[in-house]
Design a protein that fits this description.
The complex is a heterodimer of chains A (234) and B (439).
Chain A: H1 5-22, H2 38-43, E1 52-57, H3 64-74, E2 79-83, H4 91-96, E3 104-107, H5 112-123, E4 128-134, H6 140-153, E5 156-161, E6 174-180, E7 188-196, E8 205-209, E9 216-221, H7 230-233
Parallel strand pairs in A: 1-5, 1-6, 2-3, 2-4, 4-5
Antiparallel strand pairs in A: 6-7, 7-8, 8-9
Helix pairs in contact in A: 5-6
Chain B: H1 6-10, H2 19-25, H3 36-49, E1 57-60, E2 64-67, H4 79-93, H5 105-113, H6 133-141, H7 147-152, H8 158-161, H9 164-174, E3 190-200, H10 203-223, E4 226-239, E5 243-253, H11 256-268, E6 276-289, H12 305-320, E7 325-330, E8 340-343, E9 362-369, E10 371-373, E11 379-384, E12 387-402, E13 409-418, E14 423-429, E15 432-438
Antiparallel strand pairs in B: 1-2, 3-6, 4-5, 4-6, 7-8, 9-15, 10-11, 11-12, 12-13, 13-14, 14-15
Helix pairs in contact in B: 3-10, 10-11, 11-12
The chains are: A alpha/beta (234), B alpha+beta (439).
Chain lengths: 234, 439
């Protein structure tokens, strides 16, 4: 599938036609939530999908959480929620990235069962624009319920996890993996799409932050992993 | 015996018997004692619910309500629509009711009280005119049992023979004299009590009863154009511990769906094992007027999200407890652990201090690190278990020295990048290194 230009142009148009004729428009009816990261927004077709679950996977401190916070900062004056069963979220760090804490509901229940219930209840609420949940592991049925809830409310629902549960198929619309790119200089991370529902696979994106802050300095599209020379994939 | 069911009637029981007499005829007869206080309370509450139709309400104990709906039908989409609504209301409140609409209140009441649907005055018994017992006895002695017989009497002779009430009722029936509607005082305490016919320990039955009670309460609240801000829920136990709790609402609530969502969330956390319950009671402890916009036809879709958000918070709080759902606020304090605090979500936001730069996104319990430091005293390798992880300090030191008067602190904070690119938040305290968070 190495870059045949006609397909690139045709696919979105075809998809729009299909939606119109078969009412498949429930997915991504509303404009996606742009993250203000040019290359990533473009690859994702505008940003994170609304009315869908996006899984963000990556070890702690490598950028997965940074990306989720970035989504909160991007949603502006709308209500947000973060379900944080482990109660590790540090609000001053979020505020420094531009998140309006007065609009962020924090659910800090140590009981994972309640945490999941809370996230599903939040996902059903059209009043909340972006919700984030941090859970170690989710059953397929739970993920499915969250996806349906997000579809009903049009919410951007983010699930943060340290590891992907294998290469299993997922109910989530989008699965991103974020890993840090070590090396001297400013902080860099690579956002790779592991799964995207229906359509072209977005290419990996490298994000470079400004030195000493959490702001984006630049972003660039990388070739698909399969297209990379072996040495580069490590 | 004041009344009996159709089945009991077939069994030979009729009103007017003593209880012993009735039981002798039908041993399996189930009897309930009349509680005039409870009946009066019920009537008062039904009347309060009827305030949604008209403010002019007359209570006629034991079981009649007169509503003056003159001109009110337009607000409800016609007289038929209003009747349908009233019928539905009675159903929801759990009462069997007969409705009649007529030109005068006395006429309507007579029609509603008549045992069969009345076509003319001959079908209406005289007692349907709400007469004093002395008059009824005299009428009975004269053999006058139907309204048409009473109407046939010359009007001029009536005042001498009967009480003034009778002449007034007849005048009111004909519309010659106005009906008095003293101002209706809604009950000060709103509550709904549903007794069960037998004790139960089934949670689904209890939930069903709670839902019915919530429906009834919501109707009454709607009638008063008020919403509950605090609600007491009590389950009467026949055996085991009774169960009672209170619910708080961030905004006046008169929607049974919302009441129930909050109630069910809380009920889920309550252990009712080994208890049998005989009834449920919902009581409004505090109420406030409903915001006028709730019934507005032109609800602005954008700010309408706000009540939805408050409902969400109420529901989350009812299940997770008040500490489970919060909002964060920054505090001007250089100590990272005290630079923020949790507040109640509905609390209005205050101006915030500027957040300190270089703060992590996640903070956990400090974790002591075994490190090898370089000549500059900064860590170069972190010995984590059997692994050696190269570290590179990318920011710091952020010196935090504060509060010798309470919880003294002197630390140097650093941001470090591990070999895999992870960004870690470290601090040095008296020469010992700790990992405290991630970016």
């Amino acid at each position: 599938m190495s870059g045949k230009i006609p397909i690139h142009e045709l696919a979105p148009r075809l998809r729009a036609d299909l939606r119109q004729s078969f009412g498949l428009g429930r997915v991504a009816q509303a404009a996606p939530l742009g993250l203000g990261i040019d290359a990533l927004d473009e690859e994702l077709g505008g940003g994170l999908p609304r009315g869908a679950v996006t899984e963000i996977i990556g070890p702690a401190g490598q950028g997965a959480q940074w990306l989720a916070v970035r989504a909160l900062a991007a949603c502006g004056a709308q209500a947000m929620a973060w379900v944080d069963p482990a109660a590790t979220l540090y609000p001053p760090g979020l505020a420094a990235m531009g998140v309006d804490l007065s609009r962020l509901l924090l659910v800090r229940d140590p009981n994972a069962r309640h945490g999941l219930w809370a996230l599903e209840r939040i996902a059903r609420s059209p009043a909340v624009a972006v919700a984030v949940g941090q859970f170690g592991r989710l059953a397929d049925t739970e993920l499915r319920r969250l996806q349906l809830a997000a579809e009903s409310s049009g919410q951007v629902l983010l699930l943060l996890r340290e590891r992907a549960d294998g290469a299993r198929a997922s109910w989530g619309a989008l699965r991103l993996q974020v890993r840090a790119e070590p090396g001297a200089g400013p902080r860099r991370m690579i956002v790779e799409t592991l799964r995207a529902r229906g359509g072209l696979m977005p290419r990996p994106v490298r994000i470079e932050l400004e030195h000493g802050t959490a702001a984006v300095h630049s972003s660039a599209v990388l070739p698909h992993r399969a297209d990379l020379p072996r040495a580069a994939t490590g | 015996m004041l009344a009996c069911s159709h089945a009991a009637g077939v069994g030979g029981v009729c009103a007017g018997m003593t209880a012993a007499e009735a039981r002798a005829r039908l041993p399996q007869l189930a009897t309930t004692l009349v509680d005039p206080d409870a009946e009066a309370r019920d009537l008062h509450e039904v009347a309060a619910a009827c305030l949604q139709f008209t403010p002019r309400i007359l209570l006629d104990p034991p079981g009649a309500l007169l509503l003056d709906v003159t001109g009110c039908e337009r607000a409800h989409g016609g007289l038929d629509a209003l009747c349908d609504k009233a019928r539905l209301l009675m159903q929801r409140l759990g009462f069997e009711a007969r409705l009649a609409v007529a030109e005068t209140a006395t006429m309507a009441c007579a029609l509603a009280l008549a045992p069969q649907p009345a076509r003319d005055a001959a079908d209406i018994p005289v007692w349907a005119l709400r007469l004093p017992p002395a008059d009824l006895q005299r009428l009975h002695a004269l053999g006058l049992t139907r309204l048409d017989q009473l109407l046939a009497l010359p009007v001029a002779t009536l005042p001498g023979r009967f009480s003034p009430v009778l002449t007034r009722r007849l005048a009111q029936l004909r519309g010659e004299q106005p009906e008095e509607f003293p101002p209706f005082q809604p009950p000060a305490r709103l509550s709904v009590h549903l007794p069960f016919s037998g004790p139960t320990d089934r949670r689904d039955t209890l939930l069903f009863a709670l839902k019915r009670a919530a429906d009834q309460l919501a109707e009454t609240l709607c009638g008063l154009a008020a919403g509950a801000t605090s609600l007491a829920v009590r389950l009467q136990a026949g055996q085991g511990a009774p169960c009672a709790f209170e619910l708080e609402f961030s905004r006046p609530c008169a929607d049974s769906r919302v009441l129930m969502a909050v109630l069910a969330g809380r009920f889920e956390n309550i252990d009712t094992a080994d208890a049998w319950f005989e009834g449920v009671t919902l009581e409004v402890l505090r109420r406030a007027p409903l915001a006028a916009q709730q019934h507005s036809l032109f609800e602005d879709p954008a700010p309408a999200g706000r009540p939805e958000l408050l409902e969400l918070v109420d529901e989350l709080r009812s299940r997770l407890g008040p500490a489970g759902v919060r909002r964060a606020e920054l505090v001007a304090d250089p100590r990272p652990g005290k630079a923020w605090r949790l507040v109640e979500p509905p609390e209005p936001p205050r101006p915030q201090p500027v957040p300190a730069p270089g703060r992590p996104l996640a903070v956990f319990e400090p974790h002591r690190m075994q490190v090898t430091t370089g000549p500059d005293g900064l860590p170069q390798v972190w010995h984590e278990g059997r692994r050696d992880i190269a570290l590179r300090i990318v920011r710091g030191p952020d010196r935090v020295e504060y509060g010798w008067w309470d919880d003294a602190l002197a630390r140097d904070y650093f941001e470090a990048e591990a070999a895999d690119g992870s960004r870690l938040w470290l601090y040095r305290d008296q020469g010992v290194w700790f990992m405290n968070g991630t970016f």
